[in-house]
Amino acid sequence: MSIALQNLSIEISGTRICQGLDLEFSTGQVWCVLGCNGVGKTTLLKTLAGLRPPNSGNVRLNGRPVQRVARRQRAQQLSILFQDSETLFPTTVLETVLTGRHPWINPLRGESAHDRDKAMAALERVGMAHLAERSMSSLSGGERRRVDLAAVFVQESECVLLDEPGNHLDMHHQVAVLGGMVQQWKSQGGLVILVMHDVNLALRFSDHLLLLFGDGEVEHGPAQAIATETTLTRLYRHRMMSLDAPQGRWYLPA
Question: First and final CA of the chain: distance in angstroms?
Fold first, then answer.
């Protein structure tokens, strides 16, 4: 599994996100995209998923231009969790998770018992199995986020794109649920690309960072080499200080 960026340039509403970027995301890696509000992190993620075209250059999914991969095949290889989700139709928790199985389901036959078992196992994993028949509209923000993560998990794609996956999650679910899923995807040879605002969670989960500074400037590489007080201070335009902790170095605003 790989996503290769070739001479990629992206702009939106006068904001230059990247310019002539060459980069490859590969099997078994966990990348985190960091940057200030408005620098284009979400737009970059949508471009990687083939949901919007770049201004120039190419995004290649397993060697093929991502936008030329048929949608069903693309959904089998790549899944995306958006920053916020909304329920347009009345659905239950279980029905929502089963949407993650759609790329694999014969539309003439519908979901099988096997698909429902996978969905229930994913709900058990995120602590929501007891609410399987509840309406999505009755859930809290954190509960909805856990259901959305379960839907991505049962999609079983090789590449997972997550936009602010920790939104609405308490600390336990950020670490135990989200962190556990990221670790499993990585250990199974998947590719994970996250957009996050929490630098310390990013460093806890990721082995590579992609930093968006604005005006097209980008820096990328191994997380421990990229994350320094100087670089993060420049990235966030606010002085950052580091502290040594048992899990590694932590960064806080000064």
Answer: 40
214: left (phi over 0), alpha (psi -120 to 50) or beta: left
Instruction: Evaluate whether the domain defined by 2-253 bears CATH number 3.75.10.10.
Output: no
* Whole-number Å distance between alpha carbons of 110 and 116: 11
Q: How many CA atoms lie within 13 A of 108 on its CB side?
A: 0
What's the confidence (pLDDT) of residue 85?
74
- What is the reported pLDDT for 4? 98
Burial (0-12, 13-18, 19+ Cβ within 10 Å), 31: buried
Which amino acid appears at position 68 of this protein? R
| pTM for the full predicted model | 0.95
Domain limits, the chain: 2-253
H-helix or E-strand spanning residue 11:
strand 2-12
Instruction: List CB contacts of 93: < 8 A, sequence separation 6 or more.
Output: 123, 128, 131, 132, 133, 134, 135, 136, 139, 147
Helix (H) or strand (E) holding 20: strand 15-26
Q: Give every residue of the chain whose pLDDT is below 50, as ranges.
A: none
Q: What is the pLDDT of residue 88?
A: 64
Q: 4 forms bridges with which residues in the sheet?
A: 24, 60
**DSSP 3-state of 27:** coil
Q: What is the pLDDT of residues 192-215, one digit of tens each?
A: 999 999 999 999 999 999 999 999
- Pick the closest to residue 192 from 102, 81, 64 (CA basis): 81
